[in-house]
Design a protein that fits this description.
The complex is a heterodimer of chains A (186) and B (121).
Chain A (H helix, E strand, L loop, with lengths): L1 H36 L7 H10 L5 H22 L6 E7 L2 E6 H14 L5 E8 L6 E8 L6 H18 L2 E6 L11
Parallel strand pairs in A: 4-5
Antiparallel strand pairs in A: 1-2, 3-4
Chain B lengths: L14 H14 L4 E4 L8 E4 L2 E4 L1 E5 L5 E10 L3 H18 L6 E12 L7
Parallel strand pairs in B: 5-6
Antiparallel strand pairs in B: 1-5, 2-3, 4-5
Helix pairs in contact in B: 1-2
The chains are: A alpha+beta (186), B alpha+beta (121).
Chain lengths: 186, 121
């Protein structure tokens, strides 16, 4: 979510800066050379809209636009200011220091370990980390050919990755579905 | 300017920078370490007096010691023994330089794991 908001901030920030620059240029030109350019604000759509805002009656559209702008502003503020927390998997923590790892390389490590297991054609590891250190979940999908038994593959993968997963305090769930055609056993 | 060896750091440099340079050299000399990583923004580093040690963050503690974090790229090896080896090597190198009493905890952060052969010096 925060990543999306950050991307939104970058895109909108860029576009809004260009729009703001063009509007500012337009106003400057209108103010300086309005007469020569024939720009007449009186009686224009802008002046009618301003008169409508000042008058009595329903201004639902303006209220919706205003509310939307406030919401967009809040989202942009969150995207710009919210710290991007990088969750890390902590293996050990002591007075000598901490050993931790980023999620992606660790998932790659689990994937590589599972793919080495006999009977596995393809593997993919997903790591979900909890908010506390040493709380997380490893979901390992190890595909197998028809000739191998699902339970046997699950057990073999568990014996290969279980020790490392336990060291990181990860709860492990291993799935061993049938692999796609054409994938070969390691 | 990036520092690649403790010899490039003058004796008059800050303690932070000297420790970081020794930690970097020690970590890179450890089997199983393929490199150090300063991060995408290059923020994981220690800088002082125009010099910069990438991949090592060295911060002062309240007791006069320095907390060192080594951000490394590891080979496909067991991580706990790797961290122990990195700490031992860093402590040894720092002790040889006569800075042992200034070294605090050494954090080992695995930023990436790569399946390739190690480039030994």
């Amino acid at each position: 979510m925060i990543l999306l908001l950050r991307a939104l901030v970058r895109l909108l920030g860029f576009l809004l800066l260009i729009a703001l620059a063009l509007v500012g240029l337009g106003f400057a030109l209108a103010a300086l050379l309005g007469d020569q350019l024939g720009v007449q604000l009186e009686g224009s759509a802008v002046s009618r809209w301003l008169a409508r805002l000042e008058g009595n009656g329903s201004q639902v559209l303006e209220a919706v636009i205003g509310g939307g702008m406030v919401l967009l502003g809040l989202l942009l503020l969150i995207g710009a200011l919210a710290p991007r927390r990088e969750r890390r998997v902590v293996l050990e923590q002591g007075e000598h220091g901490t050993l931790d790892a980023r999620r992606r390389p660790l998932a790659q490590m689990f994937t590589a370990l599972a793919e080495r297991t006999r009977g596995v054609t393809h593997a993919k590891a997903k790591l979900r980390l909890g908010r506390q250190a040493r709380h997380g979940r490893l979901v390992l999908r190890a595909e197998r050919p028809r000739t191998t038994d699902s339970t046997a593959v699950r057990e073999a993968v568990r014996s290969d990755v279980g020790e490392l997963a336990a060291a990181f305090g990860l709860k492990t769930r291993i799935q061993a579905p049938l692999g796609r055609r054409g994938r070969r056993v390691q | 300017m990036p520092v690649s060896s403790p010899a490039e750091v003058p004796a008059s440099a800050s303690m932070r920078l000297r420790l970081a340079a020794h930690a970097r050299a020690g970590a890179l000399a450890t089997r199983g370490v393929l490199g150090l990583d300063a991060g995408r923004a290059g923020m994981r580093m220690t800088a002082s007096e125009g010099l910069r040690v990438d991949g090592v963050v060295c911060a002062a503690l309240g007791d006069g010691r320095y907390h060192v974090s080594v951000h490394l790229v590891a080979a496909m090896v067991a991580l706990r023994p790797l961290a122990d080896a990195v700490r031992a090597r860093v402590e040894r190198d720092v002790a040889i330089a006569g800075l042992a009493d200034r070294l605090g905890p050494v954090d080992v952060a695995v930023e990436d794991v790569q399946v390739r052969t190690e480039a030994r010096p």
